[in-house]
Structure to design on (185 residues):
């Protein structure tokens, strides 16, 4: 296979895969080096960045994936309006943010921060595979611990948890949050 055929194969692999695909996996399939795959993906990304293209290749969760360009979101929402209901609710986003920043975290800890119960929200997040049960906390009752998954990273277009925006509290808010957390512990 020459470079053009390798690029076509990479494009097809990324197009058909619902998950991100690692460089090492592509390299193994094409029987080329990881460096060669990286070079070919850069070339493909440049091709997709040209005007008139609706797709892009992006790096996410330790691999590459193909998706639509963000500016097409309004058109795609109209085209697939029945799927829009699958968006996360504000309550689910709140719980997910708590899990992402404090993981591993128990349901009780999430509820103490939010101030409301969240069993159904956690069930929904588990079904969507955005969170997982990552163990049990040592202590009375041994409550379940929740953490985010690679699907969480994919959903939000993150490479890893370090890509989360930093929490930005002013001094007054930070001290109030600490007092609340100590009271709940």
């Amino acid at each position: 296979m020459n470079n053009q055929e390798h690029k076509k194969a990479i494009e097809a692999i990324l197009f058909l895969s619902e998950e991100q695909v690692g460089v090492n996996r592509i390299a193994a399939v094409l029987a080329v080096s990881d460096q060669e795959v990286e070079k070919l993906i850069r070339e493909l990304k440049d091709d997709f960045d040209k005007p008139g293209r609706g797709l892009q290749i992006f790096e996410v969760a330790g691999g590459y994936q193909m998706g639509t360009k963000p500016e097409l979101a309004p058109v795609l929402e109209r085209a697939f309006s029945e799927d829009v209901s699958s968006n996360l609710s504000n309550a689910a986003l709140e719980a997910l943010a708590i899990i992402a920043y404090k993981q591993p975290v128990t349901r009780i800890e999430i509820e103490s921060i939010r101030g409301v119960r969240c069993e159904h929200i956690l069930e929904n997040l588990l079904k969507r595979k955005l969170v997982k049960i990552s163990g049990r906390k040592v202590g009375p009752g041994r409550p379940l611990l929740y953490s985010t998954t690679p699907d969480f990273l994919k959903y939000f277009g993150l490479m890893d948890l370090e890509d989360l925006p930093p929490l930005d509290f002013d001094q007054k808010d930070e001290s109030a949050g600490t007092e609340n957390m100590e009271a709940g512990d």
